[in-house]
Amino acid sequence: MEEEEEGSPRGAAEVLLSGVFALAPALEVDYLLSLRSDAQLLMRRLDSPPSSPPARLPLSECIGCYASQSQGAAAAAFSLFCYPLLRKGWWDAREARRRVARTFRVSVSPEAEENRAVAETWARAIRELAAPRTPGLEGAIYGRLPQPCQVMVLLNPQSGSGQALHLFRTQVQPMLTEANIAFSMFITEKHNHAWELVREENLSRWDALVTMAGDGLLHEVINGLMERPDWQTASQKPLCILPAGSGNAVAASLNYYATKACLLKEDLLLSCTYFLCKGLHAPLDLVSLRTASGRRLFSFLSFSWGFVSDVDISSERYRKLGRARFTLGTLQHLTTFKVYKGRLSYLPVEDPNSASSPGEPSSLSGPRANRTAVCNRQSASPRPQQGSVLEDSLLVPFDQPVPKDWIAVPEEEFVSIVCIYQSHLGTDLILAPPAKLYDDAIHVFYLTAGVSRMAMIKFLMAMERGTHLALNCPYLHYVPVKAFRLEPSVPKGHMTVDGEVLACEAVQGQIHRRLCHIISGS
User: Fold this and answer.
1) pLDDT tens for residues 232-243?
2) Is-contact 155 188, C-beta < 8 A?
3) For residue 170, how many other CB atoms are within 10 A of its CB?
4) pLDDT tens digits, 161-189
5) What is the DSSP string of 311-326?
6) In 279-424, which ranges are continuous DSSP H helix?
7) Contacts of 514 (CB under 8 A, 6+ apart)
8) Which sequence positions are flagged as catalytic?
9) In terms of C-beta density within 10 A (0-12 exposed, 13-18 middle, 19 or more buried), how is residue 156 classed?
């Protein structure tokens, strides 16, 4: 809550409703409430000095409001639930969302029906003002979940440190109740269980699909959707991720896009649950990946080979440690520091600045090769007709060389290659600060052989702040692309897609614009 400043521009807002109500549960203090057209609820204690400013609740951070009345009682009430960004404490200037709930008793008449009607009027008006405003960006299709709504929750109880079910019951479920969101829960029992469920289930019963786990469960859901005969329709069902894994890169990215803040653990979970309760969903790019052995996968986060993948997979044995497993895995692999041989080729974006936010660099260092090639083909085909297959128009079979407008990286010895489409590689690792949900780009980072262990440590430490590109490390290269092909010389090291292990072989992929929708905060 904040105090209203006298003489502020907000004073010009229209007062939609006003009334005097007692604050529950004590009912000892009466408040004059003023509901304004600028989505502010002003609250002035009647026993306060006339010169004192009223407190205010910004309803843009309200997730729900409802009226209630006890059986046989004349008085009614309305309750509202807000989750504003507040300072975490006097010792910590960072902000995180915190619950602020207020219940006001309505006793304006001896008649129960009249009191109930007044409470319903206030609750309805507050809900209308609290509804998120859909961003009006040209060409971007945003949407909002209906209210009330029903969601399908897929939860992996073994994810991360094994606390997903407990966190859902204690942290998530109360907020869903406040926001009038009903849910059907499915607890996964095996690998790819969610993949099978989503592929076969009748999804028309739900308004959104929610995963509570790490990034791997969302990977299963998306690939299950894309294997359905009605994938064009099914892929438009809004997705939501509630972080309960070790990495939680997508949840961290979504929070970063909305607030530019770095949140961890329960703070990040609360933020993503808040996004779900507000119900705004935005377009999401997907990358179609094809392997030399004939597999096709759809990826929403990243593909990697080398150091990053080795740390991710080898640290699985320390899953119970949560995100600390990655720190331990990194230290172990810095002692060996392997080099991987292969060929990397890519199709650059037409305008590098199109894959960046205004004022942000789009590239640190491209390969020392001809950079004059221009992409003159579309990055993605128009949405196919119902029943058809999504074509990868930028890719050619592996037995053919890449097209002439692609660029081949001259180096063939790498420490790590990461192709990422979101900002975060982990909860506190900002690998691609320019990335957006639907920027139509794959952000390719690769480290070539010769980089020292000390330079790697500096690189990883700077990644926590997203400042690693400013190090000007000659071995670190970054370029936004539309498509890529990676051909290992020998099947050495781990490959991962969205954190899931993939056999080491030739892989190529291309971006597809706005193929899905995901619950977001902006």
Assistant:
1) 999 999 999 999
2) yes
3) 11
4) 889 999 999 999 999 999 999 999 999 99
5) HHHHGGGGGGGTTHHH
6) 307-314, 324-334
7) 140, 141, 283, 284, 285, 438
8) 215
9) buried
